[in-house]
Amino acid sequence: MRNLFDRAEEAFRKNAHILVNRSGVLDPKFPFLENTFEQAWDWTLDINYKGAFLCCRESTNRLIKGGGGWIINITSSIVGSLRSGHTSYAVSNAVVDTMTKILTAYIAPYVNIVHFSLSTIHLLLPVTDNNPHPHFKNTFDVTMVYEK
What we know:
It contains five helices and three strands; from the N terminus they run H-E-H-E-H-E-H-H. By secondary structure, the protein is α/β, with parallel strands linked by helices.
């Protein structure tokens, strides 16, 4: 990760001042937990939350030394949906949610932290059709942004 940040700073000819984290891989088979292969679980969590952790760790050190900046972590509102078949994806997003809160508690004086959860868009309607939470089905606000 250090090498990635070094190369980015070299390419932009300036110190890192912002990090935007958004990873969202999901097992395309949508297995129930009892049918989830460990390899698929690890793949999802390694990309979605371990990647965010590694980026946050490296950028936190650089941003504090550089006098501040921004970390923006974007997750999914599927965390609250309790959907079978999305367990590893939801868990990985919940970890990033919690990590962001903890990170905010101790670096907020030095670095601005922003966290938000994306809602669904029309492409994901099959995911939301049977969701028990009515707000999860509201895609209007997000799709309006994408249509502009």
